[in-house]
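Before we proceed, please read the two lines closing this message. Let me know whether the structure tokens fit the sequence:

…
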Amino acid sequence: MQISDLITIGRLLTRTSKNGLLTFQPYSNFQDRFLTLRDIFLVFKDKRVRLVTLTREVREQTMVVGLLEKDVLEEIRKSGPVEVMIAPEDLRLLEYSPDFYDPLGKKAIYLGKEMGIIRDYFFNSMYDVYIIQLGNGKEVMIPAVDHYIASRDDQAVYFQDIAGLLEL
């Protein structure tokens, strides 16, 4: 596996707490389900890669994580922030977890009206993108991010702020 095969989800900063926890800065593609993974990859500035095991995560105002491999803490302090990455295979496994939301076949609702059906979706290495077949037969792709999704339930995905995307 190459570094280019991995999916970057955030970075660990050099700050550590008294009990050895590191500050985790999630990127925009970060999803809470990523924290169910125990093994993650750390990529240092010099392109060294370490597979490490998360021991815990604590949420306060910032997200902090612990690592089983204590020797890595000193490496991170010396080298500066490191990229946190996961393997694509791990992402596929997460899709089968109980909290995975399957959008296929769900109604796409915007401004209280059904605009179409979600026919497909894909992960673009940052976030899911929903492919919606509109009532007029055209398709539109909408990123599945908080900015565009107001809510989801068993029947539908409720979109917001997508007027500009529909005009494309």
